[in-house]
Amino acid sequence: MSKKHFTTQEQDQLRRNPYVKNVSAKAITYTDEFKERFIQEHSQGTLPSEIFQEAGFPIDVLGATRIRKASNRWRTAFQEQGSAGLTDGRKHASGRSLTRELSLEEKYARLEAKMKWLEAENEFLKKARSTRKADEKKKIQLSTRQKFKLIQEMLHTYSFQRKVHVLCAIAGVSRSGYYHYCSEDARLHRQKQEQNDQKMKAIILKAYHYRRRNKGARQIKMTLALQYGVIYNLKRIRRIIHKYNIVCTIRKVNPARRMAKATQEHRTCPNTLKRAFKPGIAGKVLLTDITYLTYGTSKRAYLSTIKDAETNEILAYEVSAYLGLNIATETLKQLRKHRHLTPDALIHSDQGFHYTNPKFQKLVKQMGLKQSMSRRGNCWDNAPQESFFGHFKDETNFKTCMTLEEVKQEVKSYMIYYNHYRGQWNLNKLPPARYRQQLEVA
């Protein structure tokens, strides 16, 4: 393209020529008829400038550079493609959507291309290996490079002509990216990358088979660093083991947990409380959790408690030698003796299996309580209850207890002391039970 720009008067002058399709300040588009005329007359020995002048073009307006470049471009296209090279194909290859309605033949061709694409994509996904767990639902998606590869295979397999833009639209990729994928530089780059991946594969296999113990990506990374002094990025290792299907044995999921997920038997509840532990009313926010108690010669018991978040009072507790569902349900049943609970009382816990169990949740509804749960792995959502267990273990001594009955006596003694005699700085220096009475009077 020449650097010379056309003025408004020159554009109007060029538009009046029948051999001009369009003209702007920077470029001019000639008709296919004029290109064919130019090739015919030039083959007979006529100079390019004379052909343009005879066709009514002002030579001084076009300029010698523009005429020379157009001449070279048309002659090269005619030598490579014949008359088809002189046809303006930009209307077929532009990124603009067609304003006219497609013909039946064009609609059929596009539907056929889409159907062939879906068939090829399904075949590719059948070959793809998935290491996902059975109870996880995750959609498999093709990478951009895999889509380019499928388009290339389809163009070679099926007789699709001028359907690159249709296939790219179906696959959701750009045509420029596809053409770059097919370029020689990109092919050489992929070939060089494949060679590097093969070398890395050999190194990874050494770590994978080290001591005849198959390993996952993280174990491979640590083995390479410790045994071979090689530092590889974890993502890079994972890419290689996925590419060459280097798989280690994966532990099977607990069948009971998988069944619970599949049947959705154990349901979690939203975090309705959102750490609003102090509503200003006693008996409205209840916190519950379970902790273990070590006594005697490494024996273990379990303690379940329900705490009033406003007054810090322990309303119910249960000690058991087993971590079954009964320890949570029995603790919950003890709340029935408390008459100061509000009608909209809410019980908050973590996502332990006791509290997601249908039996526990059914009992909560029968008692007219609402249920809330902490976010997964977030102990701060039940911080006051965790804080109580910390003080409880600091202020009790179970080393001298040899039987479960002695443990229960020690827990009972502490609960009486905690609720009725142990003052707390944030409760106006009162024990929890007396502070609740003060709130009720107020």
UniProtKB/TrEMBL annotation:
Involved in the transposition of the insertion sequence. Residues 101-128 form a coiled coil. PANTHER family: INTEGRASE PROTEIN (PTHR46889:SF5), TRANSPOSASE INSF FOR INSERTION SEQUENCE IS3B-RELATED (PTHR46889). The keyword Nucleotide-binding does not apply. Residues 275-439 form the Integrase catalytic domain. This is IS3 family transposase. Keywords: Coiled coil. InterPro entries: Homeodomain-like_sf, HTH-like_dom, HTH_Tnp, Integrase_cat-core, RNaseH-like_sf, RNaseH_sf, Transpos_IS3, Transposase_IS3/IS150/IS904. It comes from Paenibacillus illinoisensis.
